[in-house]
Amino acid sequence: MWDDKGQKIKSSTNPRINNVVNNKNLMLQEFKNNIDQQISSYEGLLTYEVVSQILGGNLKTKNSRIKEIDFIEYCKEVCQNKYNQGKVSYSYLYNKTLAIKQFKEFFKSKYGRSIISICDINSKLFEDYKSYRITIRGNSPESINKCLSPLFDGVKSLYENGLIDSLVYASVYGKYLSTKKTAYNPIVEDKQIRYLTPEQLNEFVNIYHNMKRQRTYEIMQMFLFSVNTGLRVSDIVTLEWNHIDFAKKILKKNMVKTKEIIEIHLNKLAMDILNQWKRYNRNQRFVFDLMNEDVDFNNRDYVFKKIASKNRIIQTSLHSVGVKMNLPFSLSLHLARHNISSFSLKTKY
């Protein structure tokens, strides 16, 4: 008697049975409303485990979970789940579990406690651990990074479940040691940093004013905005309207590459570009309409693939402009950042 389309029990011609059916449907609706309310008010990413707890009626609040969770056991659980899902081998599980145990031993020797609570997680703890591995254990950066991997997985999972805030996450997650090999070179060599000369930039602006192709015109606008702000392509793509204070003429956002918070005072040229894009009224969230409004920044792989995709489109368009200008090098948005520090632009857009 189940109505799959209506998601309720079908009514009956028998009044007595129909009365029972109505009561059962009211109970189902009440249960569904309760579930919907818990889902809408949940702080954090709705994982399979969270939804299961909601449906089972045993969801714990954020504060109670923070008090109960031992970071070491949490990291082990994250690692074990990877193994159970067939994503990693047993040797991976064994080695990462050992690395987690070593982190626990370090914490116990330094702080005299065996339990690492979520409140203990901060950048200093991890920097101290790296220093310990380098100076006391004599490990290589590659070896240390392998030991950090399961810990960072745990930090990422905590963040996705709303158990640590974004600032803690940004200051800890993915902060691996550099493994680049550099050798001392006694010969001083000039590294060529390319940028447009004032004459070349004026030529770029003239082409910009006469550009008939709307999309190329818009990408050239992004280049000019970067010239006046120094933003990287990743920050151009992810620039949101809420990063702009139009009254104070200030841009403030977290940089994608460095995770640092920047604050830029916008000049008239940058403000003119922003106001023009505001009149386009295409995207209610992202200034240059290069991201979908509903993008989830927790999905890092998708976000970086999206940035790379937009970067290729932008670079292809700018390259064609550079060819038209007969530049001896390829024109790119990255090159625009060099112009902001090379000279003050004195031209009208």
Helix content: 55-70%
Name the helix and strand elements from N-terminus to C-terminus, one letter apiece.
Answer: EEHHHHHHHHHHHEEEHHH
Instruction: List unreliable stretches of 5+ residues.
Output: 341-349
- Sheet with the most strands, sense and barrel status: 3 strands, antiparallel
Strand order of the largest sheet: 3-4-5
The end-to-end distance, rounded to whole angstroms, is 70 Å
Task: Assess the beta-strand content as a share of residues.
Answer: under 5%
Rg over C-alpha atoms, rounded to the nearest angstrom: 27 Å
Provide mean pLDDT, rounded.
Answer: 84
Q: How many DSSP helices?
A: 14
What is the overall silhouette? flat
The secondary structure category is mainly alpha
Total strands: 5
Task: Give structural notes.
By secondary structure, the protein is mainly α. Helices cover 57% and strands 5% of the residues. The protein has 14 helices and five strands. It has a three-stranded antiparallel sheet, with no helix packed on it. Helix 4 (71-84) runs antiparallel to helix 5 (90-111), helix 4 crosses helix 7 (141-160) and helix 5 crosses helix 7.
Task: Put the structure in a nutshell.
This protein has 349 residues and is mainly α. Helix content is 57%, strand content 5%.
